[in-house]
Design brief:
2 copies of one chain form a homodimer. Chain A is of the alpha/beta class. Chain A folds into 2 domains: 208 residues, Alpha-Beta Complex (Quinone Oxidoreductase, Chain A, domain 1), CATH 3.90.180; 137 residues, 3-Layer(aba) Sandwich (Rossmann fold), CATH 3.40.50.720. Helices cover 30% and strands 23% of the residues of chain A. Chain A has 12 helices and 16 strands. In chain A, the strands form 3 sheets. In chain A, strands 3, 5, 6, 7, 8, 15 and 16 form a 7-stranded mixed beta sheet that branches. In chain A, helix 4 packs antiparallel against helix 11 and helix 8 packs parallel to helix 9. The longest helix of chain A is centred in the C-terminal third of the chain and has 14 residues.
Amino acid sequence: MRATLIHGPRDIRVEDCPEPTLRADTDAIVRVSAACVCGSDLWPYRGVSPTPRPRRIGHEFIGRIEAVGPRVSTLAVGDFVVAPWANSCGTCPPCRDGVQVACEHRAHWGGADENGLPVDGGQGEAVRVPNADGTLVAVPGVAEPDEALSKSLLALSDVMGTGHHAALGARVAPGRSVVVVGDGAVGLCGVLAAKRLGATRIIAMSRHADRAALARDFGATDVVAERGADAAAKVRELLGGVLADSVLECVGTAESMDQALRCTRPGGSLGFVGVPHGDDPLPISVLFAKNISVAGGAASTRAYLPELLADVLAGSINPGLVFDAVMGLEQAPEAYAAMDERRAIKVMLVP
Amino acid sequence: MRATLIHGPRDIRVEDCPEPTLRADTDAIVRVSAACVCGSDLWPYRGVSPTPRPRRIGHEFIGRIEAVGPRVSTLAVGDFVVAPWANSCGTCPPCRDGVQVACEHRAHWGGADENGLPVDGGQGEAVRVPNADGTLVAVPGVAEPDEALSKSLLALSDVMGTGHHAALGARVAPGRSVVVVGDGAVGLCGVLAAKRLGATRIIAMSRHADRAALARDFGATDVVAERGADAAAKVRELLGGVLADSVLECVGTAESMDQALRCTRPGGSLGFVGVPHGDDPLPISVLFAKNISVAGGAASTRAYLPELLADVLAGSINPGLVFDAVMGLEQAPEAYAAMDERRAIKVMLVP
């Protein structure tokens, strides 16, 4: 089969790889119908995170179950499934607490499982899925999704659940004002999540007309192009003299965290989901004085999949709109380049 | 009148000072019946915070209203009142949000009000209170509290409300496991607050027999003397293999924050109220990976005073037990020394 590997900075290749086989009783094999490139895949692509040796890449995929091990009980061959970006067993204490990202038996897409066996990346034709019951979520009543539905299902693997996690971390609720820092796929899904949770005033920060337009489609009431102190002043002006109750940090840089802190009112809440890079950007003296609560981190999208999936199937949310490009798997190198150069918000790859 | 000043490290003096007078229409004058020394007063006492020039000190006091300005509407001469450690106007946006510590018109005990006029410290015979309506809380039905009640009322000025703030930041609720880092007056009040909020498993960290005993009186089910990784292992053992849902950080050092983070389960909540000193101790990568939420900071004890006061008057909580020494105001230097040397948990000063 064909699958994507990263060999080093800006060196993405699609290569022949062995077909996956069941290796444990709790495994499933998924034939991938669509995968995608994540903003976090761009960190090794840009060389910010090291790639000491070539490895399989990709952690978001949907597809059909082709085989299951004898101890898989909730899934069957033929089921169409969404794979969350984080593999999880579903039974350890963190999984029971809904914090599947801290699963004690987690396998890593493109890395290894807890037995040291290699695990396929998501950007390929097929994937061996350890901990299948705890990880995969079957899509009821869907034989073969069309492209629009595929996009929204694929968004549930990571970006929509991550935007939702940011909104929960920021305590978004009806009546609370919201600022979203970051206009990538996660930030845009954060806008959609805030709208879904009942926020009526949602300020998106964007300087790109296409992303700003999608933010408005998703529920943003205002778009702010300013940065830094000017952006905070604009937020204060828009909100009638106060800063925001809830701020979603969806980038992961020190600058974006600073921007988020500047926009949060005293006693407000900051939800952060941008993968942290660089120095610690959480100045405790600011949190202390302003009483800003901080919550978020890596999103356990597995925990949110059932409720978000129901909304996708009901047509009440359409997070798949963040995919503004569809390419064949062989075009993976171009997909990375397009996202790196911000020519695309998010690219779906079809094997 | 007599009042306490700090002149520099370990240099506390009680001196003659002018009697306060009403300076603004919203002022009140309070004749202090009891004040106390705060753990945070020890930072300048120890020279960790600078004292560039002699200044009045103390921010916790109770007493009787002796005079009110013409625009004071909720208080009357003769009322017995509790003064929260943070002065607040009660009407600006942060005050309306219950974040009085971020009051836009805040005056500072021992410092100045927003007009630049000096404000008395709490450790003296009388205090001019700017923003009297927004700051002081009258104690209904109490003409002159006895010593035990005085202690509990005085605890509402800061330490009990601050412990409560830590517990709220840590999302303490029935059924959640709790660890309290810090066995000072605030940490002990954090134990009491956690018990009051319904926690049934409360682990206090202490190496002092007297403080551990009081922690148990306040509701601690376990006391851990270990530190660092050993303490976290002990917590995990006590909780049957998992870390705590809710952790209260009540010290303010990098070490105590590290201890608190080590004891928090993935997805758990850390409430912090220790005044931060030194380097930023919030490693965002740990918060991200473990999904630990962080909330707290300077406590708006004014917001909590009505409900906590009701419980004190009903006899259902007795936070005044944290005062294990009572001294005359003239003994203020000895009160600081006793707390600095940890010979006393908290000292009440009676003018």
